[in-house]
Amino acid sequence: MSPSSRLSGGREIQLAPDDLIITKTDPSGHISYANRTFMRIAGYAEHELLGKPHNLIRHPDMPRGVYRLLWQTLQAGQEFFGLVKNYTAQGDYYWVFANITPDYTAQRTLAGYYSVRRQPTRAGIAAVTPLYQQMCAIEAQAGKAAAPDASMQWLLAQLAAKQVSYQQFVLALEQAGAAT
């Protein structure tokens, strides 16, 4: 099913506590490896994933500004932690707590990215949902070209007021939610 033919909404698929979704991509974000857990949850067969852009599963509720921040972080050679809402092939959705790390060759050239995603806390999802909704509203007003930077800057300003980075924010949400 193409992303354009999926209906927004759908039912939530919740990861089990022991589910680990693992993917690898090339430097441009095209999938070179997907584990069976990813295929089961996302609803794709391996041949439908390999060579495809990872944004195949991007949910429209996810602000483009989060992805702009993700790519800026990775291109700086740093790992990224984030809360992400994804689409399944059937039009359902699932949330993940994602850790994405640059993957280097022995010669220290970028080979791609390695991502491990697991079940997020419900408290984390509840905390980011209104932020992501506001970011999407900002993006709708800013226009396509300016949207990612406009919403990313708004998010970073909100977090700067709390004196935390996005990574610190989501890590604290996950730690606090796991403790409850």
Automatic annotation (TrEMBL):
InterPro entries reported for this sequence: PAS, PAS-like_dom_sf, PAS_fold_3
Domain PAS, first and last residues per copy: 22-77
SUPFAM superfamilies per UniProt: PYP-like sensor domain (PAS domain)
Pfam family of the protein (one): PAS_3
Name used for this protein in its record: PAS domain-containing protein
Organism listed in the record: Vogesella indigofera
